[in-house]
Write a structure and sequence with these properties.
Layout lengths: L3 E4 L1 E2 L2 E2 L5 H13 L3 E9 L26 H15 L3 E4 L10 H21 L2 E5 L9 H11 L4 E4 L2 H6 L2
Parallel strand pairs: 1-4, 4-5, 5-6, 6-7
Antiparallel strand pairs: 2-3
Length: about 170
């Protein structure tokens, strides 16, 4: 029997985009079934790393697309949702892949998420970087190397073997 749920989308809407009424209903349904939430599967950093780049995006799982500048607002929203659902884990990603993962790209990713990592450290949240074949960190090796580079207990990994397979 399962007593925990990872929340990604309900009623055709990503967790980060639920209305307050939908959040209340989700909380009610979870409480009614005595289920806890283990993680929020947010779309954080499923966006362009650099302005002016673009192309095909990966799956958004009912989330709306946001710009890089909107990511901290999205993190604030997800942090409020995490508090509502009594969870400290928020899944994040590593920007849409627009070429090879180079040391310069890794540095740009680290710089772009630095404020989010600091926010997580200051607010008792753990950001979980998922390896995603449509994003820069697609394999376990890439993700592990990046986490070692950032070196924060507030940034951990979510291993998705399917995504790693599709990343090669």
């Amino acid at each position: 029997e399962c007593d925990a749920a990872e929340l990604r989308a309900m009623w055709g809407t990503n967790i980060a985009d639920l209305s307050e009424d939908q959040v209340s209903e989700a909380r009610r349904l979870l409480d009614e079934r005595q289920m806890r939430v283990c993680c929020l599967a947010s779309p954080l950093f499923k966006c362009e790393l650099f302005e002016g780049t673009g192309g095909e995006t990966g799956r958004m799982h009912q989330a709306i697309e946001r710009t890089p500048q909107e990511q901290m607002d999205l993190l604030n929203r997800c942090a409020r949702l995490a508090k509502t659902f009594g969870v400290s884990y928020i899944r994040i990603f590593s920007f849409w892949r627009r070429g090879p993962l180079t040391p310069e790209i890794e540095e740009a990713i680290a710089a772009r998420i630095a404020d989010a990592v600091k926010y997580a450290e200051d607010n008792g949240i753990t950001l979980l970087m998922e390896n995603e074949h449509d994003c820069y960190l697609g394999t376990g090796a890439e993700t592990a190397r990046f986490l070692a580079r950032v070196d924060s207990p507030a940034l951990q990994a979510v291993w998705d073997p399917g995504n790693a397979f599709f990343a090669g």
